[in-house]
Amino acid sequence: MSLREKYEDAVAGRNADRAKIDELLVTLSNIEADINLLKRRIAELEENVRHMKSENQKMLSELQRARTVIDRREERSTVVFFAGSGSGDSQSYRLPESSADSP
Prior knowledge:
- By secondary structure, the protein is mainly alpha-helical.
- The chain has 1 helix and 2 strands, in the order αββ.
- The protein has a two-stranded antiparallel sheet.
- Strand 1 (79-82) and strand 2 form a beta hairpin.
- The radius of gyration is 40 Å and the shape is rod-shaped.
């Protein structure tokens, strides 16, 4: 192989390598763009999760408050039965409502 042929092979190899490098750079750029898009989507989803957790916590607090109110109302309206001497003379009394329990 002559020196000229070796030179031409080297130039052709260099051009092929440059073309391959350009192709790989385009592929790398596309992958980086996909990664950045996915990062943005993940950040958006994480924000939605934080918002939903906050809303759920508010709803749980409201539910607990409503249960407490219902429990207090049920306690106020509880009827106490006192058994009589066994001759059917049982009596029932409504517990007095306390103004301190009012919501």
